[in-house]
Structures are given as C-alpha cells and as structure tokens.
Amino acid sequence: MDKDKLYQKCVSYLKMLCEEIPERSVGSRGNRRATRFFENELSSLGWQTEMTELEVMDWESGGATLRVADQSFKVLASPYSLGCSVQAPLISVSSLGELERQEITGKILLLHGELAKEQLMPKNFVFYNPEEHQQVIALLEQKQPAAIISATGRNAALAGGVYPFPLIEDGDFDIPSVYTTEEEGRNLLSCIGKSAFLESRSTRIPAKAYNIIARKRKDRRQRIVVTAHIDAKKGTPGAIDNATGVAILLLLAELLAEYNGDRIVEIVAFNGEDYYAVPGQMDYIRKNQEHFENIMLNINIDGAGYKEGKTAFSFFDIPQAMKATCDDLLAKFDGITEGIQWPQGDHSIFVQHGCPAMAVSSQWFLEHMDSQEITHTAKDNLEIVDCRKVVEIAEALNWFIRMSNTPD
Ligand SMILES: [Zn+2]
C-alpha cells in the first residue's frame, strides 16, 4: 500500500479515536466504542480476534466542596474515590512518622509536604509499588480517617503535566479523598484543629471493558506480540498517549493482512495502562502465565508520533540473532533512532517475564520525561501528532516482522 493511502488511513483512525469518540478511559462508553471499532477493523482485515471481557469501574466526579468556619476551599474529588459528606476536625500530617504517631481516626486528614510529593501507587498495582507507598496506604486503612485531603505540587515524571495531581487514584481504596494545590494546602494549615465540612459527590459506576487480541493463527507457538494500550486518561483525548499506538496497530494489521510467515503475529490492544487496576494487562498475564516462553519478542508502542524530534526504539534483552535486524532497521528508517531504557510502559510486563522487547516512543518525550506538561492533559490532542511518523513506524514494524521471519 502506498504512503498516501496509509497517511489518509492514519488521519481517519486518529480522528475516530480522539475526536469522534470523546473519551477512552477504562469503563466509559467511548472506551467500549474504541475497542469495538478496533475489533471490527481487524476482523475485516482477516485477523482472528478475541474480545476478553473485563469487570471494571467507571467514575464520575460530580464535584466537591470543603468549608472550614465560613471559608471555602477549592478541592477536586480524587479519581475513582467514593463520595462523602462529613463534618469533623481537620488534622494534618506531612511525613510517615507523623502519620504513625498522630491520632487521625474519624478526622478529616490533610496530607501535605513530603508525604504528598508523588502519587501513591494503587494498592493492587503489582508492577511497581514502593515499600513507603504501601506503608502509607496500610496506615491510612488501619487508622481510618473520615476523609483525606491531599495538597500536591508538580511532578511531571509521575503525574505528567497534571497540577495539582491526585495523590490517590485508586478504586480499590475506600477512604473518600479529594485533592488540592500546594497553595490551598498552606491556607488550610491555618485551620488545623477547627471543624471542617467536606462533601464529595464522587461516584463509582460498575462497567465493562475489553482487551482485543488478534492473531493470524490460533496455536501458541513462537510469536511476536505487538501491543499498544487503547485506553486514555479520563478527561484527555490521549492522542500521543496512546491513539497513535492504536493507529500503528491498525496500519500494521493492514500491511500484514496477507502475511503468511512461520511466526505467529499477535496484535493486542491492552485496556488499562492509564487506569489504577491495569485490568487488561493483568488478564493477559494470567492467561499467558505458562506461555511467555513462546513470545520471541514484544513490540510495545506508547507515546509515539510526537511532532518534534525522532521516533525512539528502545531495545530490551534483544537476543544476538535479532540484533542485526534491529541495527538494519535503525539504518533503513531515517526518522527512527535508538532510545534509552525506560520502564514506564507495557513492554516492562514482557521484560519482567523474560521476553525480549522493543518499546516505541517519541525521543522528545523520553528526553523531557521530567519536565513536559502534556501527558494526561488536554494538550495531548491531534495538534501535536505528526502522521508521517506514525506511518513510518507502521512501515518499519511491517519490515521488521517480515525480516525476523527467517528460521534461526
Ligand atoms: Zn500511555
């Protein structure tokens, strides 16, 4: 297929994913529309598809109100939190030691400073969960404050461009919580000990979501697994994160429509990378527990196609026999360069299970990971995408998969 046609297809896929479908957060209607669209496209290209149903939780904010004496403070409901309506004394804690010592049961607890410097990993997030986060969560659950207010700063590396960021974003954590800026947190510190009223109209909505897995054949022999997460953070169009990844899977599916090689190619739209419980990834791991040794390579696309800079291919534990093909790829495609080792993506699931992996992203994002203010905000829209880069990645992966198909 010629470049022009691929380019046109790319534009229409991205419009569908980022504009016609208003949001793709896990559990939303848009998310189900996106997975249905993806499944339809792949099956019409002759791929055998499988939709795995996932029980998930959607969420609606509904807004939140905080008052101390006759003063109002601006707070936002933490995503996936339960709602509340409580009147209780306000107390504050800024370190793990204070959290251990203070009597907080039944009170409205302000978390700030050191303790609120980075988002706490969700309880059931198994891939990365620092000891200190687990201790904070365990102490909170044990001591049961009536509700939590967190005052957070900026943390691009972990929260993207979001400010303030929710310290807690976890549908498995049942103490109601809201969050606010550092400045508002400082204002609140002058009210410690007073009686506060907090109402959050946040609600959890049980919902369904789907992983889509497409294969050329059904058996489980040696396969190349190409993945991209199809969900987006709530309230963002998720163009670079990760509609471009999904568009690349769709273009690749078309380029490989007549593929008849001896490796099985599996194309997976994961549902949950930007969601507290990573349900699609957990389901995939469960189902493949005994089969990771058959995965000769994972190629994961996340954050690709940014208008500035080159595409970065990062290589993880690539076997000797595949190295030359990787080098040839870098030499053959002008817009692609080798990227650094970075862990925050679904390729890590495969690396942790002993599989070689390739992570495809944008060099600019890898270089500005600690300072960029785009990820998980409204700025992540189609204006920052270069479709020529998206097409080049699809062509490079098509070339690579066909090249790797020679017997060892
Ligand atoms: Zn992502």
What does this molecule look like?
This protein has helices at 3-20, 29-44, 96-101, 131-143, 156-159, 182-189, 239-255, 279-288, 320-332, 347-352, 363-367, 387-403; strands at residues 48-60, 64-68, 71-73, 76-77, 84-93, 108-111, 147-152, 177-181, 195-200, 203-215, 223-229, 264-270, 295-301, 311-316, 336-338, 357-362. The radius of gyration is 23 Å and the shape is elongated. It has 2 domains: 3-57 and 207-403, Aminopeptidase; 62-201, Glucose Oxidase, domain 1, CATH 3.50.30. The chain has 12 helices and 16 strands. The chain has 408 residues and is of the alpha/beta class. The two termini are 29 Å apart. Helix content is 33%, strand content 25%. The strands form 2 sheets. Strands 1-10-12-11-13-16-14-15 form an 8-stranded mixed sheet, sandwiched between helices.
Structural class: alpha/beta
As a percent range, the share of helical residues equals: 25-40%
Question: Any idea of the CATH topology of the largest domain?
Answer: Aminopeptidase
Radius of gyration: 23 Å
Number of helical stretches of at least 4 residues:
12
Which runs of at least 5 residues are low in confidence (pLDDT < 50)?
Answer: none
Kindly state the mean pLDDT as a whole number? 94
CATH fourth-tier homologous superfamily of the largest domain: Zn peptidases
Order of helices and strands: HHEEEEEHEHEHEHEEEHEHEEHEHEHH
Question: Which compounds are bound in this model?
Answer: zinc ion
Kindly estimate the percentage of residues that lie in beta strands according to DSSP: 25-35%
Strand order of the largest sheet: 1-10-12-11-13-16-14-15
Q: Compute the number of strand runs.
A: 16
Sheet with most strands: 8 strands, mixed
* CATH arch. level architecture of the largest domain: 3-Layer(aba) Sandwich
The CATH top-level class label of the largest domain: Alpha Beta
Q: Give the overall form.
A: elongated
What is the CA–CA distance across the termini? 29 Å
The quaternary structure here is single chain
